[in-house]
Design brief:
Elements: H1 3-6, H2 8-11, E1 23-29, E2 33-35, E3 41-43, E4 48-58, H3 61-66, E5 76-81, E6 91-93, E7 99-106, E8 115-121
Antiparallel strand pairs: 1-4, 1-6, 2-3, 4-5, 5-8, 6-7, 7-8
Length: 128
Amino acid sequence: MDYYTNNPVFFGAQPMIPDGLLHDLYEIRSGAVFSQENGGQWIRGQDGRISFKGVVLPVTDKDLIRDSSGTITHDTVKIYTNGYALRVGARVEDINGFVYTVTQELDHNSLHPMKRYLVERKGKAGIR
C-alpha cells in the first residue's frame, strides 16, 4: 500500500464497485507440478479455485481505443474487482460456468485498489 491508499483524507474518494454489482468469481489455479524426478515433466494435479468478488462487463469503445495488444474479439469482456489482483494468463470462472483468460490489465492508477482486466471467454473449440 502507498501513502494515498492508507491516508484517511483519500479513503472516501476511492472509486469502488457497488456491492450490488459484485458476484462470486473464481480464480482457477493449476494443480500441475513440475517433477525433475520424472525427467522434467509436468504432472497433472487437481486445480484449485480461489473465490473473490468481481463483475464481468462488456468492453466499450474506449477500451477498444486503449487496447495496445490489438486482440479484442467478440469473446472479449472486462472483469472489475475491488482490489483482487489477477495476473496475465490467469483463468477465471464465473457463476454461469464460463471460463475466461486474463489477457491484459487495464491501468487505472495507484490511488485506489480497483482493478480492471481484459479477459477472453473460452470458446467451444478450445480444450484445456
